[in-house]
Recover the amino acids of this structure.
């Protein structure tokens, strides 16, 4: 009988939205007012949620709060951009 042990993988586990590597996500650089950056840092530190995830959730919540017509428009633009990139 073989006694193979599982070896631990090096580095952090994949923690993306769907289990993918966050390092594979596109990067975005933005300028924020200092109070907004401070709030993001505090929220991330208090909850343990990465800043990229907080922004992802905020954008999703913002879109869900829009009227249906605007949500459809955003979905259409997103789909067109996805088609042009493939």
């Amino acid at each position: 009988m073989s006694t193979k042990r599982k070896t631990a993988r090096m580095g952090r586990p994949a923690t993306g939205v769907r289990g993918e590597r966050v390092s594979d996500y596109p990067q975005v650089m933005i300028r924020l007012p200092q109070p907004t950056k401070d709030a993001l840092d505090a929220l991330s530190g208090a909850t343990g949620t990465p800043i990229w995830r907080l922004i992802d959730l905020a954008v999703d919540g913002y879109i869900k709060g829009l009227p249906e017509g605007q949500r459809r428009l955003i979905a259409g633009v997103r789909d067109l951009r996805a088609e042009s990139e493939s």
Remarks:
- The longest helix spans residues 68-85.
- The radius of gyration is 19 Å.
- Residues 16 and 25 are 9 Å apart (CA to CA).
